[in-house]
Amino acid sequence: xxxxxxxxxxxxxxxxxxxxxxxxxxxxxxxxxxxxxxxxxxxxxxxxxxxxxxxxxxxxxxxxxxxxxxxxxxxxxxxxxxxxxxxxxxxxxxxxxxxxxxxxxxxxxxxxxxxxxxxxxxxxxxxxxxxxxxxxxxxxxxxxxxxxxxxxxxxxxxxxxxxxxxxxxxxxxxxxxxxxxxxxxxxxxxxxxxxxxxxxxxxxxxxxxxxxxxxxxxxxxxxxxxxxxxxxxxxxxxxxxxxxxxxxxxxxxxxxxxxxxxxxxxxxxxxxxxxxxxxxxxxxxxxxxxxxxxxxxxxxxxxxxxxxxxxxxxxxxxxxxxxxxxxxxxxxxxxxxxxxxxxxxxxxxxxxxxxxxxxxxxxxxxxxxxxxxxxxxxxxxxxxx
Amino acid sequence: xxxxxxxxxxxxxxxxxxxxxxxxxxxxxxxxxxxxxxxxxxxxxxxxxxxxxxxxxxxxxxxxxxxxxxxxxxxxxxxxxxxxxxxxxxxxxxxxxxxxxxxxxxxxxxxxxxxxxxxxxxxxxxxxxxxxxxxxxxxxxxxxxxxxxxxxxxxxxxxxxxxxxxxxxxxxxxxxxxxxxxxxxxxxxxxxxxxxxxxxxxxxxxxxxxxxxxxxxxxxxxxxxxxxxxxxxxxxxxxxxxxxxxxxxxxxxxxxxxxxxxxxxxxxxxxxxxxxxxxxxxxxxxxxxxxxxxxxxxxxxxxxxxxxxxxxxxxxxxxxxxxxxxxxxxxxxxxxxxxxxxxxxxxxxxxxxxxxxxxxxxxxxxxxxxxxxxxxxxxxxxxxx
Lengths: 385, 385
Description:
The structure is a homodimer of 385-residue chains.
Chain A: H1 2-30, H2 34-49, E1 53-59, E2 65-72, H3 77-80, H4 94-101, E3 105-107, H5 117-125, E4 130-138, E5 141-150, H6 158-202, H7 204-223, H8 228-240, H9 250-253, H10 261-268, H11 270-278, H12 287-293, H13 314-328, H14 340-349, H15 357-368
Antiparallel strand pairs in A: 1-2, 1-5, 3-4, 4-5
Helix pairs in contact in A: 1-2, 1-6, 2-6, 6-7, 7-8, 7-13, 7-15, 8-12, 8-13, 11-12, 12-13, 13-14
């Protein structure tokens, strides 16, 4: 009887551990930020595994150990304790040692182990009898520790330790996933910012034009209820669509008079040049293609290839509307700006012929109903509704 | 007795599943490429869980199902079968359905289930009696399927299925990790390529100069036995260190005569301009700082800040040596190139004073012993050893 009972409780315990692993796996697939990752892991462990208190700490550069998430009976425990990973006595407990050594630290008897002295009083007050600190690490790089407390003795045997080591590995995976997604986003944003600074040195008109085109394109995409991801791509395409103008000499770009045929052909080259530049970057969106096609027109009268209708991707169909409205209403060295009413009338005339009908309607609504305004100094804000 | 036995085998089986999960977690933390991920997962499952055959397939855009890894008794099974995820009969088996529906598909009886008919003969020949196909997915995005075969009946109960669903989730995590690391690398490389194209439009001398400086800097860093990661950062810094010259007017950059004081101060600005551009990109290396400091000198005689010795990061200390050697030995509109011997003598005179002693020695050795050569057309290859 005893044997069966022991087995039963053993099975139950293993089942609990397995349930936690399942819950963690589901969590890892969906989680997007670290705070949430840490907190949900604490919740899962307290809920499924009968721990009285669980917390996650990150290693600070200044030898600090910073609690970042917790669950269970805490009662200000973390406020009342001091943990470090330096050479002081505050680093001699399980957490400090786990972070220093990279190995799990089991405290089987909080009451009597001298190493736990600095935290003993506060721990016993709250009924913590045993604890373990498992390092959260990526190879030899220690990120922090997972700290688990129990009110029972002999909980942290080899099986439990193995399980908690898995949990720590899961936390590492989650952290890697979140940080690399964030890093990617930062790199993309930083790149766009860097390229836009480069561009600005050469050509302030184009730089501001791109910001405004992006802003208006995004509003059109939203009005057309395009998916968030497509809209994100349109934003980036807007910000970069004229990058090819960097290959056009300033003397042509800023020529006060009318361009001759040769000069105009150099300007028109910018769509293809932009494509050549941007195709190297492995964006998740068709940024290079939208750039290539933003001077095409639905009826085939555009450039560089004179493609028609659906051959032009939706991103470019939206971009071209925002592009012409922004360009017409802003100042250029060779002409004054059109007022907005005139510009909207212009695209309205060509809707369905040169421009996507819905995109034009959306654009007009954005200005007339939503009072959209461009941001920049080269614009006349002379719209009268 | 029967009950205990049943429990015992149940415990063993769960232990096996747990061992597999542990092995998978360790794998996920270290794996760097997909092929390896898939193959090792197949190995773990066959080794720990008594399956006769395990394979992983990826969903192809053309409705194909492509086997990418396998382990166990296969005996050309995959060569002899055809699986799709379209509307044909080849999509009616467990794998096709798993990919189409996103739900696990259990085939409890390969011998008698009519849906397995297209693959039955080949499966029975090899002793496969039951099978399951679990979709590998990220949210609603189906990536492929994990396919598992057993020679026993009733193996794929709820517990086993739950376990294999975890394994599939682990595969997804691994794929995400690998693909996002790869994506990050691609984006960084693509960005550098894009920026270098932009740069080339304006200033072909500088563009080629950067490539050569990067190449020589990397060799110096290797000779100094710097860590691989530092060397990678030096490469990128070399490729971008003169990006700030994009802010210098071509008329000054390519002026055939000597620059006046004002013009020279504009040229000197390029270090700070480069820093301003590059600091936006969240590289893992001090690319912006190396760019800022590449015209500083050990004795404080450099620019923009006149900092000294260890205030200059090692990346910049290496970069500056490569930079001056490359510059001196290459053609400029305002002067012919120096020959290499003279250039190396020049840096040798200033070693320990302006330049890092070891970097200079390494540089000289690279040319004299390793026969290093610059790549470009503006170089005289007139080195006589």
